[in-house]
Amino acid sequence: MTEASSTDLLELAERVAGAGRNGEEIEAYVVRSHETDVRVFDGDVESLSVAGVEGVGVRVVSDHRQGFAWAGSLDPQVVDETLAEARDNAAFGEPDEWNGLAQPSDFADVERAELDIWRESLLGVAADDKVSLALDLERATRAADARVRGVEYAGYGDAAVEAAVANSLGIAATTRRTMCTCSSYVMAGDGDETQTGYGFSAGRTFDDLDAGEA
To answer: Which of 97, 173, 186, 187 is most buried as measured by Cβ atoms within 10 A of its Cβ?
Structure first.
């Protein structure tokens, strides 16, 4: 892993949020994600993409003026430049008395939900296994009924997302989640009548998916 990709997201968000000048409110949202998308058609792989994204979004409120900036990097220099850009954008914003950030007291009566929605195992699934599932789904869809005339789409997708948010008023929170799906879109007909149908299976881990259910 690179230095940027191993950065602690909340630590980075809190560093940005703590860099405010007199009279400023700052909020930082930091995210890292890894996604896979597989599409198959007629027994072959039509497309396979694997993408990783990491970045930081900054919001600055000053004198009731609000500015935003985003960068697709967690490099410290880039993060500092993003804060400077958000600060500059705020200077050109229209004043609005309602511009401002959330603070901990806004959530004093809110019960926080503890969500267990991250499964490390998804990150270890080989691309070949993901492709095989998509191909199996297409074959199963074609074989499901003699009236199936064509599979317009069959595929697999997943995402592992980690994020953190912090602001200069004391808000600090993190979240992470994994998700994956397999799905197909089919045309079926009887005589002159043609209909379409869509099915999917979804879960947090690869083993949760059921091509037969989709």
So the answer is: 186
